[in-house]
What we know:
Order of helices and strands: HHHHEEHHHEHHHEH
Strand order of the largest sheet: 1-2
Shape: globular
Distance between the termini: 48 Å
Number of helices: 11
Largest sheet: 2 strands, antiparallel
Radius of gyration: 19 Å
Structural class: mainly alpha
Helix content: 55-70%
Strand content: under 5%
Amino acid sequence: MRNWRDWQSVLYLLLLPALVVWQWQYGFSWPLYLLELFLTLGVGVIHHNHTHIRMWRSRWLNRITDLWIGFLQGHPTFVFFPAHIANHHRYKHSEKDIARTYRFSFPGARGDTNHLWGYLLHPVQATFVLYPLFIHWMKRLYRFHRTYFYYSMFQYGAILLLWACLAWLDWKSWLILVLIPQLHGLHWLLATNYLQHAHADGSGSSLNFARNFYGWVNPLLFNIGLHTAHHKHPRAHWSELSSLQEKYRLLIDPRLNEPGLLRYMWRTYCLALLHPRWRSRSLHPKD
């Protein structure tokens, strides 16, 4: 293991399937199910972190971890390379970032938004623009990196085979204990982009392109809230982001430093429905 703090990641990766197996065997439990849903968030962050810095020094352990994360998340790990590394980190929420939050329009709103409807729709909208990117990436792999193309397709096939076997054993348990939690985790994985960037400055700002969250979200979810430091130091291990973030905290627009994730979501997506004073204000320059 490259960093001992990743034992927390290993714990999450083992605990999630253990909860599924326990409930499959002994019956549904709301406390265990809620813990399972939380762990799907953790797996999404581990997926992200494992893409930036491989967890193990061994190539084969990293490959096994890729496959394990794919089984738990319901989607192959390769997708982070075209969507996150080659797109989001390269363009930092600017006009060239294909999943930028101010790109999308829908009934009642156009462009730069930060409200409940935009948050709920963003994962669906992002999926529609990201999948063509995945297909293009796979075509390039087939032409220039045939071995990795087959490795990526193997991940897809293995996940579909696992789904088929579990559904054949007990489709209701598969739906409730496996598929719905995976969709929950994928929703949060995509919606996090909206939480971190909606109404931030997408004009090419060196600091104000991202929102940061402090509080319990960081020790529980691998410092996922410290987004400016992560963008500035994409090769830094997640455990280093707390100290790195201090370099930027006072330089970032104060409106992009939030004391807590749940408090922010309650204010921006719930209270804002009741009174304009709670609505988010955009930092993105007006056209």
